[in-house]
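Structural prep section.
Before we set up the soaks we want a predicted structure of the protein with (2R)-2,3-dihydroxypropanoic acid in place, mainly to decide which crystallisation condition to try first. Input record follows.
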Amino acid sequence: MHSDKNKKVLVTHQLPGDRIHDLSAHCEMNVWMDPGLLSPESLREELAGCSGLVCLLTDRIDAELIAANPALEFVSSMSVGVDHIDVKALTARGIPVGHTPGVLVDTTADTAFALMLAAARRVVEADHFIRVGNWTQENAWAPDFFTGKDVSGATLGIVGLGEIGQAMARRAAGFGMEVLAWNRSPRQVTGITSVSLDELLQRSDFVSVHVALNDDTRGLLDARRIGLMKPGAVLVNTARGGIVDEAALAAALSSGQLSAAAIDVFETEPVPLDNPLLALPNVVVAPHIGSATTLTRAKMADIAAINAIAALSGEPMPHCVNP
Ligand code: DGY
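Run finished without errors. Recording the tokens verbatim:
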């Protein structure tokens, strides 16, 4: 089916990849060109009268915004996670929501593994130690100097055995790790032992979070569950901040129950500087860069454009999240 080229589509950021140029042939495309994040006010203004929206995970597409846009026919997000979008409200209107699964699996697992190694071996702390001039004759190599925690041979607990969780397990196998996993609907994967979430937390030296954020997983790692974690364990979160109780995590790190954490995602992003996790030297932080390679971001943008083109052409989106 041909698309109606007069339909207006808002693209909330300049996007990489090639397919975004194809999208402009299918609609009247309005790309937000300003640097930085599009404010909620500008999003509301720019979306008025649009048939389509190509957005980022930083754009909040809530019920109010959806209700204010009766002409909206599709939403395509350049992300795999869709917790920034009220999918229920869009589904109720029959509006398809596209996302970008698959292409960021290995890149995100690489980030999780890199952060896990960095936290275990105190890489960021050590880097800072040199740069501030602390590496001196009096404070140098010694048997206990910057000792960390072995990753090789340790037990890794994977919370959420989707594609990224499984990619994390493949990396762990290369380090001779024992891999435990919990998934809401249990999955049998060779080389991975399925356990309950509580058992995983009790047995794992490293816990890596790979579930999507939704009503079932918000606050999943709460104070009780963090309290179950093995003494000296390390928590890695590259999924979404809302899955982990940040205050409880900070308390467990301060008390010494946990030895370290590596956090790429926060409940509020950009993370406010008074977040207690930022005050702790045993926390490695990153600004939501799980999928941040040039190639992966181009592939994500291409899928977002392909989903949008399909919707404009009256075809099903290849990657649609609505039930
Ligand atoms: C996603 O696509 O949801 C990721 O969080 C991006 O890194």
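Observations: The first strand starts at residue 8 and ends at 11.
Flagged for discussion at group meeting.
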